[in-house]
Write a structure and sequence with these properties.
Strand content: 15-25%
Number of strands: 8
Number of domains: 1
Mean pLDDT: 97
Structural class: alpha/beta
Helix content: 25-40%
CATH topology: TIM Barrel
Order of helices and strands: EHEHEHEHEHEHEHEHH
CATH class: Alpha Beta
CATH superfamily: Metal-dependent hydrolases
CATH architecture: Alpha-Beta Barrel
Low-confidence stretches: none
Radius of gyration: 17 Å
């Protein structure tokens, strides 16, 4: 099963048995500029792992536009480099960078995704209105596709974004949070999204699903989210695996293994 978003180089996972001994396929997501070299090195060493370059909004105060663009430009020929992100907006805590700074950094990474013809992976937490506004304002820069990672908004909000970004390939990824009773409204969100635009992720080591909630999340736990999604869409887990894997390959422009 293809995990569209994980952080296996995180200190909690890099020496975890599930990473040292497990078999996994997916995308190692860049979130901290300082960690990008190790992320690219990790992808290079694992046949079925790809990587992105991005700066999470939590690190917006340390963002250097020149340094980040230089890194992107220098690694364009690395075949495992599949997207810009995760980048976006996070208003969940008061100690995060200012909204203005986050928006500035978000806009710059959207510009780079367009300039270097990469799809964009978006992080949005408690920031729906500004996220939608920025994406819609930059619609002409999203022609390589956009993925809303860890989609946590309502069906109505998802439909609004799909409508406003008509003509753009907009994808939505769901992880362990869809197994939480408090997030049951996301089942309606899943149902409103076209089947060819839904992805699965773990966001490991974060967001461990029920019945593993409270543990360090690992790629193997994606099966719990897959089962929930299968129940919601009245499909088998095998059908969900095929569907979401094909969607991930399409979004990230990865050629499926022969």
């Amino acid at each position: 099963m293809f995990d569209s978003h994980f952080h296996l180089t995180d200190a909690r996972l890099i020496t975890h048995p599930a990473v040292l001994q497990g078999e996994f396929a997916g995308v190692e997501i860049g979130a901290d500029f300082e960690c990008l070299p190790s992320i690219f090195e990790f992808a290079d060493k694992h046949e079925q792992v790809y990587c992105t370059a991005g700066v999470h909004p939590a690190y917006a105060n340390d963002y250097s536009p020149n340094d980040f663009e230089n890194f992107v430009a220098e690694h364009l020929n690395f075949k495992k480099f599949v997207a810009i992100g995760e980048c976006g907006l996070d208003y969940h805590r008061s100690d995060l960078p200012s909204r203005e700074q986050q928006i500035t950094v978000f806009n710059h990474q959207i510009h780079l995704a367009d300039r270097y013809q990469k799809p964009l992976v978006v992080h949005s937490r408690d920031a729906w209105e500004d996220t939608a506004e920025v994406l819609i304002a930059n619609k002409n820069k999203l022609k390589n596709g956009v993925l809303i990672h860890c989609m946590s908004y309502t069906a109505e909000q998802a439909q609004y974004l799909i409508n406003q970004l008509s003509g753009i390939d907009v994808y939505f990824a769901f992880g362990g949070h869809i197994t939480y009773p408090s997030k049951a409204f996301l089942h309606d969100t899943i149902r409103v999204i076209p089947l060819n635009r839904i992805l699965l992720e773990t966001d490991a080591p974060y967001l461990a699903p029920v019945p593993k909630r409270g543990e360090v999340n690992v790629p193997d736990y994606i099966r719990y989210s897959a089962q929930t999604m299968a129940n919601v869409l009245n499909k088998t887990v095998d059908e969900i695996e095929t569907l979401t894997t094909n969607n991930a390959y399409r979004f990230y422009k990865i050629k499926a293994a022969e």
